[in-house]
UniProtKB/TrEMBL annotation:
One of its GO terms (molecular function) is GTP binding. The lineage of its organism: Eukaryota, Viridiplantae, Streptophyta, Embryophyta, Tracheophyta. Its EC number is 3.6.5.4. Residues 1-25 form the signal peptide. This is signal-recognition-particle GTPase.
Length: 409
């Protein structure tokens, strides 16, 4: 089964090569490297150990393995909010600036109100008067009281007094809005620790912007070590992002994502379903038919040979031509790209550019000597050779890349 990965990995990297120079970046899955590595390892292990079931296509089995692993990685099941056994439940929201904490306050209040719970919002972001105004307006919109003491008081004091007030009014849930910074910093963490000490929250939810890419793991790790989160909320999933941050959160902190935000309105909050998220991550292209077609044009030995060459960096221009031919047999670039997850947002202009790049490479390879095709380093080493290739292919010398390796794998 593992050869299926080889097809996909190769085709993916092949096409990426010709798209990577495009400035208009298409959304790809951004995942922290250690998380991606351990994920690939566990999928490979499962896939290799899986017997092919009769009557089921191996590639369908493969997609299922990947899907199941993704669901597991994200916690498997829906995780509900935890409520305090006695007295008000305190939910503390933490996160960087602009990720959507204040918006989440209102969204959660709206959500909890529908469940029949009474709520109070506490304005503990004291750095900008506008932050308190924003929370006050949102509170009005959802019809819940907002406790604030202006910008002079300490956040931990505000939170403590807010909780006192909520107790006296027998409010079910107190949601504390806090200040974020552009980056993780000591002052923010200390302030959160003080608030935590003052109100002993039932839930400490880290709000994470779904656009957060590779840095998600470090971010979640830092907040979890410093303040000990109980879960996370992933916001802005209505955008282009594929939500790779979702994969890091559980893996790094051991804590589940509890909700997702899908827009700016107070109604745009939903419980987090790991299986739906897995579909979002996987299901953007027709993975199955893609793998199937790849299988038809390359036999297994070819793929393994190719993989070995890529690993040992001996991929030469002959291999390139062979693969270009194999890929051409699968159909046009636009058709192939439409089948690869994460690449279906590539614009027609980008596809034309990618096709042009392939043609451009071919025209140069066509005028190379057999030696040069075997050993791409000859071109890198000799200006004379590059000049000759450029002239014979009808290009300028500057158009001939100094190092072809970058263009090969
Ligand atoms: P905070 O600094 O963490 O409190 O972030 P805010 O709650 O003030 O939100 C920052 C911006 O992101 C605001 O313009 C929000 O309207 C917007 N925002 C928050 N959540 C979402 C979401 O789920 N989707 C979209 N598209 N925008 C959001
Ligand atoms: Mg805010």
């Amino acid at each position: 089964m593992s050869h299926l990965f080889q097809y996909m990995a190769f085709l993916w990297s092949y096409i990426s090569t010709f798209l990577s120079s495009q400035s208009n970046a298409h959304p790809t899955l951004q995942v922290s490297v250690p998380v991606a590595r351990s994920f690939i390892e566990s999928v490979t292990e499962k896939a290799v150990g899986t017997d092919v079931i009769r009557g089921v296509q191996p590639e369908q089995q493969l997609v299922k393995v990947v899907n199941d692993e993704l669901v597991q990685l994200m916690g498997g099941e829906v995780s509900d909010l935890v409520f305090a056994k006695t007295g008000p439940t305190v939910i503390l929201l933490a996160g960087l600036q602009g990720v959507g904490k204040t918006t989440v306050c209102a969204k959660l209040a709206f959500y909890l109100k529908k469940m029949g719970k009474s709520c109070m919002l506490v304005a503990a972001d004291v750095y900008r008067p506008a932050a308190i105004d924003q929370l006050t307006i949102l509170g009005k919109k959802v019809g819940v009281p907002v406790y604030s003491e202006g910008t002079e008081a300490k956040p931990s004091e505000i939170a403590k007094n807010g909780l006192k007030e909520a107790k006296s009014k027998k409010t079910d849930v107190v949601i504390v809005d806090t200040a974020g910074r552009l980056q993780v910093d000591k002052a923010m963490m200390n302030e959160l620790k003080e608030v935590k000490k003052a109100v002993k929250p039932t839930e400490i939810l880290l709000v994470v912007d779904a656009m957060t890419g590779q840095e998600a793991a470090a971010l979640v790790g830092a907040f979890n070590v410093e303040i000990g989160i109980t879960g996370a909320i992933l916001t802005k999933l209505d955008g282009d992002s594929r939500g790779g941050a979702a994969l890091s959160i559980k893996e790094v902190s051991g804590k589940p994502i509890k909700f997702i935000g899908r827009g700016e309105r107070v109604e745009d909050l939903e419980p987090f379903y790991p299986d739906r998220m897995a579909q979002r991550i996987l299901g953007m292209g027709d993975v199955l038919s893609f793998v199937e077609q790849a299988q038809q044009v390359m036999n297994q030995e070819d793929a393994e040979e190719l993989q070995k060459k890529i690993m040992s960096a001996k991929f030469n221009f002959n291999d390139f031509l062979k693969q270009t031919k194999a890929i051409a047999q699968m159909g046009s670039f636009s058709r192939i790209i439409g089948m690869i997850p994460g690449m279906n947002k590539v614009t027609p202009a980008q596809i034309r550019e990618a096709e042009k790049n392939v043609k451009f490479m071919e025209s140069m390879i066509n005028v190379m000597t057999a030696d040069e095709r075997e050993r791409p380093e000859l071109l890198a080493e000799s200006r004379e050779r590059r000049r000759r290739v450029a002239k014979d292919a009808g290009k300028t010398e500057q158009q001939v890349p100094l190092s072809f390796r970058r263009h090969l794998i």
